[in-house]
Structures are given as structure tokens and as C-alpha cells.
């Protein structure tokens, strides 16, 4: 341990601790913009300046404690220097706060009022050219060159999409090698968006598409919400985690005017039936190990762009929201037609890559005579995807008083789900849900929950692994979240240093609870808090095994026969060659 004096207090912290963290440990919050603990400690914005006796002003994010250091964080000289640095940043930022989607979560805006900054007297930078159809949007005129996107994309997500050119005042953050963003290897995880301190990086806004559909009397709008949405949607509309229940979320979606409000959790149970059955067949085959989960589109896109050799080992099961879209388009077509309407499916997702996934051609249901209800030869299962941030903005725009809403059930028959489905939204959850049902399929008995427990999976470790005995079978599993962790796991598999039968990958650290479409916080504990909510919902659920969902049985009886049937393949599995 090292002892320093901080604002006259004696503070003891571990060797190597940065001054900014030593101060935080005793409740002294030093303002920062470019800093990301353990990731981006470059001292470039110089907003975190503090005074060190004998040294003058230093950036507290890249200065480690030394024995006997005397540090002052709150003096007029420190404040004046921080303000001057902030003003220089503001002078080069197109501060159009009134219309910026990040106005409530912009770190620069929050500091600008604290430090009483002035509007820039210089010509505002121009917004650079960008592909407006791409789900990830960038406005370079709002970039403050903090390099957080560069660090997160390179070091946590293994994609290295962002780079910079020039130095000093001429420095610019760019897409690597001057490539168009669509060709730069972006997995669309959205982590650069949630780690950007300003409005420079955002997700494509699709709210107007949904408003048009809701207002069109000839459209039957169907909405579904992902597992991880229920943990976070209240954050952007002023509800506590306790107030923001799934029942109030269903109510809020009705208040927005959606005709049917379904739950992606239903389809997560369906995914387990299909993927669990696929896994049981896979275990009896001599196919190359492992089989990878395929429900995370950021991971699937990453595999296609960066590790194409493993694409053939992905489960062919579509992701739950695509499955639900296919079920809706096939089973509600007659009802919509009788009402003289066309179906429009909307998914509310904690994810940016889902905006891309719903446009992937090989995920569309191909009727080929099997599904004559569909008017078109091929039609998207899901017509539009909104992030949780867009949902929250829509609720605020429409003026839905969420706190006053009653709690209601999701509509049926596509609204019933089990606890197994709920935990899809955190790292390890898909694996755990699949094992609960795969064990039943193999042994005819439900396994003990502790056998399948994956709550030790965290974003911090490259992967967690276990070897389970299920009946006569030995099953080696691994779980990774975050794409750098994923890359390390794939490299170990490639080198023969690890061997598994079934691997779950989630692109975002911690899984969908930390998704790139979730409300933005600079509190890195938030992902774990949201995961706890999912675990609590699972523990409290009356049904906790996907194969016990009665409405899933009904769906098979009425439409699909059994898992992996011909119709199940038509509706619920990808039709890709690669
Ligand atoms: Fe996910 Fe999924 S768990 S991918 O992480 O398989 O986004 O929540 O919706 O579809 O169910 C995201 C979450 C989500 C799908 C499910
Ligand atoms: Fe990198 Fe993910 Fe951002 Fe794409 S979305 S640039 S992969 S951090």
C-alpha cells in the first residue's frame, strides 16, 4: 500500500493506483472526459488536472500514486486550468445541444454548466460525410478526440475500426485506412457508442419508421421486447429498477399504440427447443467441435468478418427475436388479412447489431409453398428494430406517464416465458438455459439448477469453462463475452490449446445487459446490477425450464410438429450456405 495526502486527508491505496481512482476511493470525484479506467489513461483532455506538491499540475488519470505525495484536487488554480482546457475542447465541438440525442447523457454538456463555459466564438466544425443507412452513425463535428472509441474497439472488441491522423490541433479520429465504415470490420456491437462521452457516435434513428406504422390504419403493429430490455428500460424514463417491471413495460408499449405486445422471452424458450435439440444431434455426430451459439448478431457478424472459418460451426437456429418475427408473420397473417391490414413487426432490443440482423437476407423466412400466408416470396421476419434508448425517447415524446401505468401481462399466445429465457440477457444465460433443456432431452429428467449454473461468467475473464456429465455424455462448455475475449478463445481453439463441445459467445461485455443499445451510463457496475435483476426474475419464475413452457408446446402442436421439423427449419433456422 502507498500513503498519500489528498486534500489534507491521509489516503492509503494500492501501489500503481492512478490519482483519479485514489480520489474516487475516498469519495472525491475528479471530472474526466477521456478517461476509461484500465483502458484509456492517456491524459489527453487534461480536464482531470490536480496539483501535486513540487510538480505543479498533472493529469490525475495517468499519474500513479507515490509514497508521501501531497495532492490537491480542489483549488482555484486547478479549477481555472480545468476550465481553460474544457473551453478549448468546447471551441472545437459543434455544440447543438438542443437537438442532440445525447443531451441528457453528454459528459461535456454536464461539465460545461459546472464550469460556466462560453459558446464557441470560432466557426463550427462541419459534420463529415457518413453512410446514413449504416446502423452506426458518426458526427465528426461532435468528436472531442478523447480516443475512447479507439481504445474500446481495439482493446475490448478486437475490431480496430477507429484510428487517428495528425497531431495536436490537427488530430482527427477516423475510420481505419480511410475505409467506408461498412467495410472497416465493424461488428456493430455499439460499444463505441455507449463509451463515447458526447453525441459523436450514435445508433441510426428508426423511430419515425415506427411512428408511421403505428399511425397507419392499414398496419397491424406487433412489438416484442428482448430479455435484457426489462432490466434497463426504466433508466431513460425516470423509473427505479423496482418500478420498471416487465408488466409496466408491456403497459407502456400498449400506451404507445402497438396492437400486439409480445415477449422475445417466449422465443428464447423456442430457441432453446431448437438449439437444444440441434445440440443433442450434434453431440451424436462427428461434426467438428465446438458448436457455437448464434443468437448474438454482433458475434455472428464478427465471426463472418474476422474468423470466417468458424461460421460453419454456428448453430443454425435464428436468434429469438427473428424467430418470433417468423412466428408472427406466419401465424397472424390470416388475422391481419381479415382485418384488412398488413403486419409490421418491431423489436425493442438492447443492441445495435439487431438493426443489421433484421436486414440479413438469409434470415428471412422463405415460404416456398410451405407458408402460403406470406404475400411476398421472401419477407423480413422483423421490419424494424429500436434500441432501448429509442424506446425511452419515444415514450418521452408521446408523454407516456410510465410510473402511473398498471402492470399487465404480455399478450398471448406469444407472451408466456420461463426463467430460462429471461437469463438470455446476461453472459452465460443462453448456455445455462440450453443445458437445462439439453439435460432433460438426454436423460428425461430436469437437472439440478446448480449443475448448469453459469453465474461465474463475467466480462473480466477471457472465458469460463466447465465439464459436465449429462447421462452418459461428457459435455465441455465455454462462455465468453466481449470480442477481445472471444478472439482469445477462438485463437486458443485454433491452436489446439482448448477443446469444447458447446460455446456461448456474446459480443458485448457481460452480454445484452451491457448492450450497445442500452441507456448510457458511465457507471461500469450497471451491467452487473442489470444481470442481478435477470437472475432474480429467473429465481422467482414459476417455470424455469424452456421445455415446460405450455405455449411452446401449443405452438409445436398447432404449427411446427416438433423441434427441427421441416416447418421448424423453414421458419426458425437460417438459410445460409456459409
Ligand atoms: Fe439478446 Fe437475444 S439474448 S441476443 O443478447 O438471443 O439484444 O436481451 O434479444 O434475439 O432472447 C440482445 C438480449 C436478445 C435475441 C434473446
Ligand atoms: Fe468497434 Fe463495436 Fe464501434 Fe463497430 S460498433 S466501431 S466494432 S466498438
Automatic annotation (TrEMBL):
One of its GO terms (biological process) is ATP synthesis coupled electron transport. Transmembrane segments: none annotated. It holds the Pfam family Fer2_4. SMART domains: Fe_hyd_SSU. It comes from the Bacteria. Keywords: 4Fe-4S, Iron, Iron-sulfur, Metal-binding, Repeat. The keyword Metal-binding applies. This is 2Fe-2S iron-sulfur cluster binding domain-containing protein.
Amino acid at each position: 500500500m502507498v500513503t498519500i495526502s489528498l486534500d489534507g486527508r491521509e489516503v492509503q491505496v494500492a501501489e500503481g493506483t492512478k490519482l483519479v481512482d485514489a480520489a474516487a476511493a475516498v469519495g472525491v470525484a475528479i471530472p474526466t472526459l477521456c478517461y476509461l479506467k484500465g483502458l484509456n489513461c492517456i491524459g489527453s483532455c487534461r480536464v482531470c488536472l490536480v496539483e501535486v506538491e513540487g510538480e505543479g499540475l498533472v493529469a490525475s488519470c495517468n499519474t500513479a500514486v507515490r509514497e508521501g505525495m501531497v495532492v490537491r484536487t480542489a483549488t482555484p488554480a486547478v479549477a481555472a486550468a480545468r476550465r481553460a482546457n474544457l473551453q478549448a475542447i468546447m471551441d472545437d465541438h459543434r455544440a447543438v445541444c438542443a437537438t442532440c440525442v445525447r443531451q441528457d447523457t453528454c459528459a461535456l454538456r454536464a461539465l460545461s454548466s459546472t464550469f460556466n463555459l462560453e459558446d464557441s466564438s470560432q466557426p463550427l466544425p462541419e459534420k463529415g460525410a457518413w453512410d446514413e443507412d449504416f446502423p452506426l452513425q458518426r458526427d465528426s463535428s461532435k468528436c472531442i478526440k478523447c480516443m475512447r472509441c479507439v481504445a474500446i474497439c481495439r482493446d475490448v472488441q478486437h475490431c480496430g475500426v477507429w484510428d487517428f491522423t495528425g497531431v495536436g490541433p490537427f488530430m482527427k479520429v477516423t475510420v481505419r485506412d480511410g475505409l467506408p465504415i461498412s467495410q472497416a470490420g465493424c461488428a456493430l456491437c455499439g460499444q463505441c457508442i455507449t463509451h463515447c462521452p458526447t453525441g459523436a457516435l450514435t445508433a441510426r434513428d428508426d423511430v419515425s419508421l415506427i411512428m408511421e406504422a403505428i399511425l397507419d390504419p392499414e398496419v397491424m403493429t406487433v412489438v416484442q421486447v428482448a430479455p435484457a430490455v426489462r432490466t434497463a428500460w426504466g433508466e431513460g424514463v425516470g423509473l427505479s429498477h423496482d418500478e420498471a417491471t416487465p408488466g409496466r413495460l408491456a403497459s407502456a408499449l400498449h400506451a404507445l399504440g402497438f396492437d400486439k405486445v409480445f415477449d422475445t422471452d417466449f422465443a428464447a424458450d423456442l430457441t432453446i427447443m431448437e438449439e437444444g435439440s440441434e445440440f443433442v444431434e450434434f453431440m451424436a455426430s462427428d461434426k467438428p467441435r465446438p458448436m457455437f451459439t448464434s443468437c448474438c448478431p454482433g458475434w455472428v457478424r464478427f465471426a463472418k468478418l474476422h474468423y470466417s472459418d468458424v461460421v460453419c460451426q454456428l448453430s443454425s437456429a435464428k436468434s429469438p427475436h427473428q424467430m418470433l418475427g417468423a412466428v408472427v408473420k406466419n401465424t397472424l397473417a390470416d388475422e391481419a388479412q381479415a382485418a384488412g391490414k398488413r403486419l409490421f413487426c418491431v423489436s425493442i432490443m438492447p443492441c445495435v447489431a439487431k438493426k443489421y440482423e433484421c436486414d440479413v437476407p438469409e434470415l428471412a423466412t422463405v415460404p416456398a409453398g410451405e407458408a402460403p400466408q406470406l404475400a411476398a416470396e421472401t419477407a423480413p421476419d422483423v421490419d424494424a428494430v429500436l434500441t432501448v434508448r429509442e424506446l425511452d425517447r419515444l415514450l418521452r415524446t408521446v408523454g407516456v406517464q410510465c410510473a402511473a401505468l398498471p402492470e399487465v401481462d404480455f399478450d398471448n399466445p406469444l407472451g408466456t416465458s420461463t426463467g430460462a429465457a429471461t437469463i438470455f440477457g446476461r453472459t452465460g444465460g443462453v448456455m445455462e438455459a440450453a443445458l437445462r433443456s439439453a439435460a432433460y432431452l438426454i436423460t428425461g429428467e430436469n437437472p439440478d439448477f446448480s449443475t448448469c449454473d453459469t453465474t461465474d461468467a463475467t466480462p473480466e475473464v477471457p472465458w469460463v469453462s466447465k465439464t459436465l456429465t449429462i447421462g452418459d455424455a461428457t459435455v465441455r462448455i465455454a462462455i465468453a463475452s466481449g470480442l477481445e475475449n472471444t478472439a482469445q478463445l477462438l485463437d486458443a481453439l485454433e491452436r489446439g490449446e482448448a477443446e469444447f463441445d458447446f460455446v456461448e459467445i456474446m459480443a458485448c461485455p457481460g452480454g445484452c445487459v451491457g448492450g450497445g443499445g442500452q441507456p448510457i451510463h458511465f457507471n461500469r457496475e450497471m451491467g452487473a446490477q442489470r444481470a442481478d435483476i435477470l437472475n432474480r426474475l429467473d429465481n422467482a419464475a414459476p417455470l424455469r425450464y424452456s421445455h415446460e413452457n405450455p405455449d411452446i408446446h401449443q405452438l409445436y402442436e398447432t404449427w411446427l410438429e416438433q423441434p427441427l421439423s421441416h416447418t421448424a427449419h423453414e421458419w426458425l433456422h437460417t438459410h445460409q450456405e456459409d
